Amino acid sequence: MTSKSMRSFAGGLIVAAGLCGAVYFFGPGEATDTSEKLSEDDMKESLASKGYVIHSEKEWEDQIAEEQSIKDKAEAEKETEKEKEPTEKIIYRTVLKVSKGSTSIDVGKTLQKAKVIKNANEFSDEVEKKGKANGLRPGTYEVDSEMTTDKIISIIFK
Q1: What is the enclosing helix (H) or strand (E) of 22?
Q2: DSSP 61-99
Q3: What is the DSSP secondary structure assignment for residue 135, as one 8-state letter?
Q4: Which CATH architecture has domain 93-156?
Q5: Domain segments of the chain as ranges
Q6: 120 with 111: CB under 8 angstroms?
Q7: pTM of this structure
Q8: pLDDT tens digits, 75-110
């Protein structure tokens, strides 16, 4: 491109920007509002025809209160049913085989899998605290979830 064609192109850009600015500033203002003002009843009717449900604040609060009372009644019924049901305690029993070379962590994990204890790490920590980690006796033992941790430790460890 030559310098003359560049000047012509730049001048065209300036003229176009000026025209856009003039239309923006001096053109028609805000878009005229052609929508009609609806009354409250007309708005409700229009929304209802489109599938919306309209409640006053009082109606809404009454509906929420009614829903809450239904939930409260359902919870009360559940509690009375729970009181009627006999409560049975589930006891888990297992036969534990301790082989030579097993650790207290291995025993804890096995007991946790059998649901005799809740946490294998806590069991291992308790064994360590009692100083019986090296006293694991190989053999077969029958333990259950009713036994205390101390009782289980005294059966399996020296």
Answers
A1: helix 3-26
A2: HHHHHHHHHHHHHHHHHHHHHHHHSPP-----EEEEEEP
A3: G
A4: 2-Layer Sandwich (3.30)
A5: 93-156
A6: yes
A7: 0.45
A8: 988 887 776 666 677 888 888 888 888 888 888 899
